[in-house]
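Study this protein:
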Amino acid sequence: MDPGRDREFADFVDGRFTALQRFGYLLTGEWHLAEDLVQTSLTKVWFHRNSLRSGNALESYTRTVMVNTSTQWWRRKWKGETPTEHLPEPAAPSEYGVVDDRDLLLRALATLPRRTRATLVLRYFEDLPESEIAQIMGCSLGTVKSNVSRGLAKLREHHLVAAVSAPAQKEG
């Protein structure tokens, strides 16, 4: 390590910090980020101070490092925290409720007779029309309608009719 270069670097920082911070402000648009940018850049430059040919190259190299560091920060997906007075998004719904509802529904479906359960699954989870269900199950349209009616009545007893009676969303 060259003590002369260390002294030269310290003098450079003392004399040019404010100018570098103004340059950093123009790059970032925020004073606190400009200060962070200058400090980060000076840290990087300090490690390479002995390889610079002259003291005049120090400022040019520092500004180049600042531009490159600022560009790297800008490219990062996460820009850091931005303090706000109000939270920008509503609280996420609890995923436990969805799991609990699914568990209750599966338990309630398990209490139904097999044909009634199959009818409800075909109607509300597969979103098939009643006529197609009658074909699949080999029964009349009236039997399908009565199985659906009885099945929904049983699920109402379990307070699950809203979860089943809404038509299933087909994934596309």
About this structure: Helices lie at 3-28, 31-47, 56-75, 95-110, 114-125, 130-137, 141-157, 161-165. The chain has a mean pLDDT of 81. The chain has two domains: 3-75, 101-165. DSSP finds eight helices and no strands in the chain.
